[in-house]
Amino acid sequence: MSYLNLSFYVFILLFFGVYYCTAPKYRYIVITIGSYFFYGYTNTKMLLFLMTITLITYIGGIALEKRKRKIVYITFFCSVISILIVFKYTNFIFKNLNVLLNKIQYDKQLTDQVNLLLPVGLSFIIFQACTYLGDVYKNNILAEKNISRYAAFVAFFPTILAGPIQKSRKLLPQLHEPVFNGEQAKKGTILFVWGLFQKIVIANQLLIVVNRIFDDYKNYNSAYYIVAGICFSIYIYADFSAYSDMARVVSKIMGIQIDKNFNNPYLACTTSEFWNRWHISLNSWFLEYVYIPLGGNRKGSFIKYRNVFVVFLVSGLWHGVGWHFFAWGAVNGVFVIIGQIFKPIRKFLYDKMKFDEDTEGMKLCKRICVFILITLSWVFFRNGVHASLYLIKNMILFKPLCFFDENLLSISGSVVSTLITAMSLVIFWVIQLNRQDEGYAYERYSKQIFIFQILPVAMLLCACVFAICTNDSTVSTEFLYFKF
Questions:
Q1: What is the 3-state secondary structure (H, E, C) of the chain?
Q2: Distance between CA atoms of 169 and 393, rounded to whole angstroms?
Q3: What pLDDT tens digit does each residue of the chain (484 aa) get?
């Protein structure tokens, strides 16, 4: 069930009707039932995975509280991670083993099409459940004895399909007696409308351009590749940010707070800073459960850089099954490591040349450089390895005259459509920049007279309706990160 389906709005009205008719101390039961209905709505078989993961980690938490031994923690942690490996990577592993067997001229082949159901959001569910095992093991929380309340944590429906990944030490305590907050609900409603705008007006329109160019790239030139690359870079941000914002809204109305998943990543001045601002919940998970256990930055520079590279490789494979995801992770790992290695050299040169790197001009140059590097890396995220190398080569070695192609103005379908998309992007970035400090932005908004509070919300909704009505094809209701 997607946030853009009519069935979701019917579900959410019924859910909140029951939720607020229930005493606060029993609302976790409504969350559990509602979450299981939400997750199993399209395919009830997926509930078996959810119940299995919940049961394993629930038993693991109780076992860890009784005996906090590393072997117990590793056993239950690996048991859950193995579910992800089996159901997500079996076909990929068999396919590559067959390639290896062909190389050594071995006659027998393994089947590379094992029909395993891959539940939506399996990676997010497993990573969220793993935070519980980690928190109990590290004495951050006590084991949850109430299995229904624990099930509500694992299956928490606002975040179950695409995050943000919640840590048990933050979410579980809030499930005891969530209380409605009218001001938070009002703030959440505005944020939900903004999420709709990001998805329908920005992400969906940019996706049309991306698919048109990248799916048929041999028939276009470098100018189109560059525009499509930029569109994909903004698309993936708008799409995922929209879902994360909507998830926060539903949680706010429930009286539960979840953290932001993005902090204007494209304002980053280094690639390292970019990844600290992007998909914050996932990066925090990798930091706590991969980077630090590997030794973090405690064992010298070489080990630190090795650990950074491993984290990015694992992150790449977590995002998807394919060598292009592996390449995407490797490329970003290299970008971050090179940036960290050259940081003292860069600082030395700035001091010698008496450049102040904190001036707005220098920050702008660094942000442009980061945007270019990240945009080039996203090409691997969208396309196969060979196609990506071809596209990146042509994007870098472009000829300036290719931008004088008159058909480029119709890249969105028509000149008018391209201009409307460009104007929408300007509005998108202006509002995003003003969201840098959400609390302050909302405070300024709430001080306006009523008409000026309603007007921007109405305009965003009208833009969404206009985008839906002018779209020739079916409006995409799926979010990109549902695949992961």
A1: CCCCCHHHHHHHHHHHHHHCCCCHHHHHHHHHHHHHHHHHCCCCCHHHHHHHHHHHHHHHHHHHHHCCCHHHHHHHHHHHHHHHHHHHHHHHHHHHHHHHHHHCCCCCCCCCCCCCCCCCCHHHHHHHHHHHHHHHHCCCCCCCCCHHHHHHHHCCCCCCCCCCCCCHHHHHHHHCCCCCCHHHHHHHHHHHHHHHHHHHHHHHHHHHHHHHHHCCHHHCCHHHHHHHHHHHHHHHHHHHHHHHHHHHHHHHHCCCCCCCCCCCHHHCCCHHHHHHHCCHHHHHHHHHHHHCCCCCCCCCHHHHHHHHHHHHHHHHHHHCCCHHHHHHHHHHHHHHHHHHHCHHHHHHHHHHCCCCCCCHHHHHHHHHHHHHHHHHHHHHHHCCHHHHHHHHHHHHCCCHHHHHCHHHHHCCCCHHHHHHHHHHHHHHHHHHHHCCCHHHHHHHHHCCCHHHHHHHHHHHHHHHHHHHHCCCCCCCCCCHHHHC
A2: 46
A3: 778 888 888 999 999 999 999 998 899 999 999 999 999 887 788 888 899 999 999 999 999 988 878 899 999 999 999 988 888 888 777 777 777 777 776 666 666 566 676 778 888 999 999 999 999 999 999 999 999 999 999 999 998 888 799 999 999 999 988 877 777 777 778 888 888 999 988 998 899 899 999 998 888 889 999 999 999 999 999 998 898 988 988 998 888 988 888 988 999 999 999 999 999 999 999 999 999 999 888 888 899 999 999 999 999 988 888 889 999 999 999 999 999 998 888 888 877 777 777 788 888 889 999 999 999 999 999 899 999 999 999 999 988 888 888 888 888 878 888 888 888 888 888 888 777 777 777 777 777 887 888 888 888 888 888 888 876 555 566 777 777 6
Q: How far apart are CA 50 and CA 150, in angstroms?
A: 12
Kindly give, in sequence order, each residue whose CB lies less than 8 Å from that of residue 20, ignoring residues fewer than 6 positions away.
180
Cβ neighbours of residue 113 under 8 Å, at least 6 residues apart? 91
Could you give the angle at which helices 182-196 and 222-253 cross, rounded to 10 degrees? 160
Structure tokens at 102: 């062909």
Predicted structure pTM score:
0.88
Helix axis angle, 46-66 to 147-154, nearest 10°: 120
